[in-house]
Backbone:
C-alpha cells in the first residue's frame, strides 16, 4: 500500500512553506515517526515525520519547491524493504548525465557544489556531483552546470594550458567565482518584511542611557555557584534585565501597549520576547507571564528557548504574541545600536557590551563596568517623558538590584 507524505497544518496565518531539505532519498527505508523532510516557513522550520514504516518510493516536491498545507511531498511504499541492488552500484560507477536528483549523494571524493549550481542542476535534472568543477578548489559553479547541460555553449578549451598558464597576465577572477546568487529563505524574507513594516508604520525613536553593572556583577559572582547548584542553571544577566523591564512596564503601562486600528490596547500581562540569533536569522521566542517567574525560571526558560531556536525546534506558539522585547547585541560585541521595533509592540530594549570606563563617582574618577542601554519606541504610543522614565527605572533596578527583590 502506498501512503502519501503530506504537508501538515502549520499554524495560524501560515499557509505555505518551502521544502528546505529532504532527510531521506528514494529507495531508503523509514520508520514510524522518523523525520523525512524539513519545511521552512516564514517563522520556523518544521519536520514532517513518517506516518508508517516502509520505503520512500517517490519524491514529488524536490528541495526548493513551494508547497501549501495538504500538498503531497512524496510517497512511502508501506512495509517494503530498502533496495540495494548491483544495478545501483553499476549506475554509481558509470553515471549518466540524466541521473535523477533524488538519488544524488555526495561522496568523500565529490566536488563542492555551490548553492546556485545545486539549484541550476535541479532545474535541469542533473546530478551536480557528476559535473566537473572549474571554480576555486574545484567547486562546481552555476556556469559549470550550464556548460555541462549545453556543451555547444561551452567555450573551447585552450591549447596546452599548462604551458600558457605562466604567461597569463594576472587579473580579476571570472565572475562566476566572485559572485553567488541564492534565493532568500522564507524566514529572511519575513524578517525583512517585518523590519521594513516597523520603519514604515511606527513613529520610531530611540533614547539612550548607560548603566553601571558593578552591583549586579558583584551579586552574581557572590551567589552564582549556589544558584547553579540549587537550580541547575547558571545565573545570567538576562533575568535581571527581564525583571527590571517588568518593573518599568508596570509603572509605565503605555510601554506595554500597542495600537490596534483606532484603539490603544493596554496589556495587563508581561510576555517578554527575547531575541535569539540563529544560523537562519533572528527569531524572538516569548517568555510567558515573566512577572510571576523566579530568576531561575526565567533563566531556564530563556535557555530552553534559545537552544530550540538554534536547533530549529521552535513552534509557532513559542513565537506568537509578546508585549515587549529585549535584544542583546552585546554578546556579539556591539557597543551601541538602535534596535528596530518588533511590531506591533511599542518598545524594545537593546543591551550592549560591558566595557570598563572611567566614571565620576562622588566626585572621584573610578573605573566601572558600564553598559549602554537603548530603548526604541513608537512615539505614537509613548511620549518622550515616558520613554526616558522607563529607561531610568531599568537603570535604577540594575544599579540597585535589591529593588527587584523588594518590588520598588
Residues:
Amino acid at each position: 500500500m502506498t501512503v502519501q507524505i503530506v504537508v501538515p497544518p502549520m499554524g495560524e496565518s501560515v499557509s505555505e512553506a518551502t521544502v528546505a531539505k529532504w532527510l531521506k532519498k528514494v529507495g531508503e527505508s523509514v520508520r514510524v515517526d522518523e523525520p523525512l523532510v524539513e519545511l521552512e516557513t516564514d517563522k520556523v522550520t518544521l519536520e514532517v515525520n513518517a506516518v508508517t514504516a516502509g520505503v520512500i518510493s517517490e519524491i514529488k516536491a524536490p528541495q526548493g519547491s513551494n508547497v501549501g498545507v495538504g500538498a503531497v511531498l512524496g510517497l512511502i511504499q508501506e512495509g517494503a524493504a530498502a533496495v540495494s541492488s548491483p544495478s545501483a552500484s553499476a549506475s554509481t560507477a558509470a553515471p549518466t548525465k540524466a541521473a535523477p536528483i533524488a538519488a544524488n549523494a555526495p561522496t568523500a571524493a565529490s566536488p563542492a557544489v555551490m548553492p546556485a549550481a545545486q539549484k541550476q542542476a535541479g532545474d535541469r535534472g542533473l546530478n551536480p556531483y557528476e559535473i566537473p568543477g572549474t571554480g576555486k578548489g574545484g567547486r562546481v559553479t552555476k556556469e559549470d552546470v550550464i556548460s555541462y547541460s549545453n556543451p555547444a555553449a561551452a567555450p573551447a578549451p585552450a591549447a596546452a594550458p599548462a604551458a600558457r598558464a605562466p604567461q597569463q597576465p594576472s587579473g580579476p577572477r571570472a565572475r562566476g567565482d566572485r559572485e553567488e546568487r541564492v534565493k532568500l529563505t522564507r524566514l529572511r524574507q519575513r524578517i525583512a518584511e517585518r523590519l521594513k513594516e516597523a520603519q514604515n508604520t511606527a513613529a520610531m525613536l530611540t533614547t539612550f542611557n548607560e548603566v553601571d553593572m558593578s552591583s549586579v556583577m558583584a551579586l552574581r559572582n557572590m551567589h552564582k555557584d549556589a544558584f547553579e547548584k540549587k537550580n541547575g542553571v547558571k545565573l545570567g544577566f538576562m533575568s535581571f534585565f527581564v525583571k527590571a523591564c517588568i518593573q518599568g512596564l508596570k509603572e509605565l503601562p503605555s510601554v506595554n501597549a500597542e495600537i490596534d486600528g483606532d484603539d490603544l490596547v493596554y496589556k495587563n500581562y508581561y510576555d517578554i520576547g527575547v531575541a535569539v540569533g540563529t544560523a537562519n536569522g533572528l527569531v524572538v521566542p516569548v517568555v510567558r507571564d515573566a512577572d510571576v517567574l523566579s530568576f531561575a525560571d526565567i533563566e531556564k526558560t530563556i535557555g530552553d528557548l534559545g537552544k530550540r531556536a538554534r536547533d530549529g525546534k521552535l513552534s509557532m506558539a513559542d513565537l506568537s504574541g509578546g508585549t515587549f522585547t529585549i535584544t542583546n547585541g552585546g554578546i556579539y560585541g556591539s557597543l551601541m545600536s538602535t534596535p528596530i521595533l518588533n511590531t506591533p509592540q511599542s518598545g524594545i530594549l537593546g543591551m550592549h557590551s560591558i566595557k570598563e570606563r572611567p566614571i565620576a563617582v562622588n566626585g572621584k574618577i573610578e573605573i566601572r563596568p558600564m553598559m549602554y542601554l537603548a530603548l526604541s519606541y513608537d512615539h505614537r504610543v509613548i511620549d518622550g517623558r515616558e520613554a526616558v522614565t522607563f529607561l531610568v527605572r531599568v537603570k535604577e533596578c540594575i544599579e540597585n538590584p535589591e529593588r527587584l527583590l523588594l518590588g520598588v
